């Protein structure tokens, strides 16, 4: 059992690569054309994986921008941020 644990830790070596998840998601979304293409892709991926039900939520609320750490974050506070 101990040997198995040590061999797993050897496989999980950190190579120092860092990816900002939100930046990566934004880049992926920017590569899709406008419209429902992203939704169709999500549903197709779920179908390919054998997922029987897909639930999506469209949130059109806007939120205050007065207490943000940076003014640049204001663009992420409401529905106008889709596709940013």
From TrEMBL:
Q: Which GO terms describe its molecular function?
A: Hsp70 protein binding
Ranges where the Sacsin/Nov domain occurs: 19-79
Name the residues that span the membrane.
none
Which InterPro entries does its entry note?
Answer: HATPase_C_sf, SACS/Nov_dom, Sacsin_chaperone_reg
Q: What is this protein called?
A: Sacsin/Nov domain-containing protein
The major lineage groups are: Eukaryota, Viridiplantae, Streptophyta, Embryophyta, Tracheophyta
